[in-house]
Amino acid sequence: MSIFNATHPHILVLNHANCPYYCWGCDQLGFGLSYVCSQGCNFYLHKQCGNPQTLIEYPFSNKCILRFRDGGPGIDSPCDACGKKIKRFHFRCTCTFQKRHLHPSCLADEKTLEAANGLTLHLQKAATSKCLHCGTKDLWSKVRGWAYVSSCGSYCYHVSCVKEIINQNWRYGFFTGKSDPFLTIKQRFPEDMDRMNQLVVARKKERPTRKHTKAVLSVLFNLLTGNALGLVGAAQTYFNS
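RESULT FIELD:
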């Protein structure tokens, strides 16, 4: 399949990109089936940017319809899915009560990712726990970001973090354009899960017990009030707790 796009002088053909790239249309990371220049120029468009639908339904609400735009209102707004700024091509919500902006490629994200041991992560509107990659639940203030979430809700990856992982692995030469980039999540999931569990255990060990905290407060109180006998008793309690 071939198309002509006003953003490039040559015919574009639908083909597998040999490596991850940045789409000229939306300036976001791309890989896999894409529109590439038939003359060999370093020009790529996501399939969704090269031949977009005019209207599309918001994945998490059938009351919200998104309209494709190649600029205008919405530029510099955060993408509802990945949190990154809208720069050129995007979809904008037609609703009057809430404005959503999304990169075309984010709307085409895989709906599920296979993790280790048969665990499946499902695309959700927001993370239910801290991301295994970045360690936060929300991307930043007022931007939650979509996430791949396990059925139990305990394990998550932000959509933006998944793309970052894929890009990092490509730069390190772990896969080519012909391999499935989403396999990188399956390969690193056990390591990320172990790292997160170790952090949780470490924090629990560092957290003072209620008895320990009470002893510390008792030492401070007796020190401030000049109660020598009470200070000795409180100190013994502290060091024995």
